[in-house]
């Protein structure tokens, strides 16, 4: 089994989609082993997306991520990182496959409803960014 860090982004919490997205996660065979609804500070959002700080969209991305509550989650399952990215769908919902979270719920390439870790190393860093061991069960 493998863990991955998920964020249900502000465009999705705004539209009250947390439960619907969680049902896609669970239908994909992933277990939600930690979860909390929080509001990111600007410092947290900038640090979390630090790898993108040279990208043209970084400022808008940070503004978006602090614009409303997010639900941060730790997911666990067989090949959890790839399994979650598969059910998330492509970054741009216009390119996402049918039946994925982004195809069904995302608005555009920025307001794309969910984040998922992209590799084991980033998954571990992102998990410890939000959760301590006693919050994971
Ligand atoms: P995430 O890291 O959120 O799981 P991802 O790995 O599919 O998504 P990245 O390339 O890591 O996509 O980009 C991180 C986030 O930055 C995207 O999910 C999206 O919200 C935003 N983003 C990416 N590309 C663009 C773009 N061209 N314009 C605006 N925002 C973008
Ligand atoms: Mg990414």
UniProtKB/TrEMBL annotation:
<dbReference type="GO" id="GO:0006241">
    <property type="term" value="P:CTP biosynthetic process"/>
</dbReference>
<dbReference type="InterPro" id="IPR001564">
    <property type="entry name" value="Nucleoside_diP_kinase"/>
</dbReference>
<keyword id="KW-0808">Transferase</keyword>
<dbReference type="Pfam" id="PF00334">
    <property type="entry name" value="NDK"/>
</dbReference>
<dbReference type="GO" id="GO:0005524">
    <property type="term" value="F:ATP binding"/>
</dbReference>
<feature type="binding site">
    <location>
        <position position="112"/>
    </location>
    <ligand>
        <name>ATP</name>
    </ligand>
</feature>
<feature type="binding site">
    <location>
        <position position="57"/>
    </location>
    <ligand>
        <name>ATP</name>
    </ligand>
</feature>
<keyword id="KW-0547">Nucleotide-binding</keyword>
<comment type="function">
    <text>Major role in the synthesis of nucleoside triphosphates other than ATP. The ATP gamma phosphate is transferred to the NDP beta phosphate via a ping-pong mechanism, using a phosphorylated active-site intermediate.</text>
</comment>
<comment type="similarity">
    <text>Belongs to the NDK family.</text>
</comment>
<dbReference type="InterPro" id="IPR036850">
    <property type="entry name" value="NDK-like_dom_sf"/>
</dbReference>
<dbReference type="InterPro" id="IPR023005">
    <property type="entry name" value="Nucleoside_diP_kinase_AS"/>
</dbReference>
<feature type="binding site">
    <location>
        <position position="102"/>
    </location>
    <ligand>
        <name>ATP</name>
    </ligand>
</feature>
<feature type="binding site">
    <location>
        <position position="9"/>
    </location>
    <ligand>
        <name>ATP</name>
    </ligand>
</feature>
<dbReference type="GO" id="GO:0006228">
    <property type="term" value="P:UTP biosynthetic process"/>
</dbReference>
<keyword id="KW-0418">Kinase</keyword>
<keyword id="KW-0597">Phosphoprotein</keyword>
<dbReference type="GO" id="GO:0004550">
    <property type="term" value="F:nucleoside diphosphate kinase activity"/>
</dbReference>
<dbReference type="GO" id="GO:0006183">
    <property type="term" value="P:GTP biosynthetic process"/>
</dbReference>
<feature type="binding site">
    <location>
        <position position="85"/>
    </location>
    <ligand>
        <name>ATP</name>
    </ligand>
</feature>
<dbReference type="InterPro" id="IPR034907">
    <property type="entry name" value="NDK-like_dom"/>
</dbReference>
<feature type="binding site">
    <location>
        <position position="91"/>
    </location>
    <ligand>
        <name>ATP</name>
    </ligand>
</feature>
<feature type="active site" description="Pros-phosphohistidine intermediate">
    <location>
        <position position="115"/>
    </location>
</feature>
<dbReference type="GO" id="GO:0005737">
    <property type="term" value="C:cytoplasm"/>
</dbReference>
<comment type="subunit">
    <text>Homotetramer.</text>
</comment>
<feature type="domain" description="Nucleoside diphosphate kinase-like">
    <location>
        <begin position="1"/>
        <end position="137"/>
    </location>
</feature>
<keyword id="KW-0067">ATP-binding</keyword>
<keyword id="KW-0963">Cytoplasm</keyword>
<protein>
    <recommendedName>
        <fullName>Nucleoside diphosphate kinase</fullName>
        <ecNumber>2.7.4.6</ecNumber>
    </recommendedName>
</protein>
<dbReference type="GO" id="GO:0046872">
    <property type="term" value="F:metal ion binding"/>
</dbReference>
<keyword id="KW-0479">Metal-binding</keyword>
<keyword id="KW-0460">Magnesium</keyword>
<keyword id="KW-0546">Nucleotide metabolism</keyword>
């Amino acid at each position: 089994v493998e863990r991955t860090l998920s964020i249900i982004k502000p465009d999705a919490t705004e539209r009250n989609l947390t439960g619907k997205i969680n049902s896609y996660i669970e239908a994909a065979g992933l277990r939600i082993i930690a979860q909390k609804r929080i509001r990111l500070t600007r410092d947290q959002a900038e640090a979390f997306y630090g790898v993108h700080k040279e990208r043209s969209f970084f400022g808008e991305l940070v503004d978006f991520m602090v614009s409303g509550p997010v639900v941060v989650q730790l997911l666990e399952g067989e090949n959890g990182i790839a399994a979650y990215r598969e059910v998330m769908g492509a970054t741009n919902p216009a390119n996402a496959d049918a039946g994925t979270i982004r195809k069904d719920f995302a608005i555009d390439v920025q307001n794309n409803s969910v984040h998922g870790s992209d590799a084991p190393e980033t998954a571990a860093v992102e998990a410890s960014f939000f959760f301590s061991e006693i919050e994971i069960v």
